[in-house]
Amino acid sequence: MDRVAVTAGALYAIVLLRAGGTFAVGWLAGAGARRSRFAGRISSARFRRAERAIQRWGAPVVAVSFLTVGFQTAANFLAGSMRMPLPRYLPALFVGGAAWALIYATAGLGVLEVLGRLFAERTALGVSAVAVLLLAVCAAVAYRRRRAALGTGDAVSEES
Length: 160
Description:
This protein is mainly α. The chain is built from five helices and no strands. The protein has helices at residues 2-34, 45-65, 72-81, 86-121, 123-159.
C-alpha cells in the first residue's frame, strides 16, 4: 500500500504541474490572441457567450477530462485560453488530478506487476503478448489513417 501512496503522490504532483502549466500557457495564448489581429474575431457576441459558458460550466469538464485519454491537455488549455476563473479551475484541477493519479497508481502498478511476473516466469509468453499488443496498435493506427485518407479523398472528388 505504501508503494501505491508514493506513486499516487508523485503522479499527483506531476499532473498538477503539467495541467496547471497547460492552463497557464492557454491563459497566455488567450491574452496574446486578444491583443493580436484576431481580437476582432474573438470579441464577437458568439465568442463571448461561449467564453462565459466555459467560465461558468467548464470546471466539471476539466475534472472529468482527467478520466479520458487525450482530452486533458485540450480541456486545460481551453480553460486557460477562455479565462476560466481560478476559483473555479483549481478545485476541478485538484479533484480531477487526484482521480487521475489514483487510477494510474493502482491500475498502472498492477499492470506493471503482471508484466514483470509474466516476463520473469514465462519470457516467451511475455514477449509474444507485447508483440501482439504492438501489432494491434499498429493495425489500429493504420486502419484509422487509411479511413481518414479515404474520407478526405471522397470529399475532394465530390467537389470536382
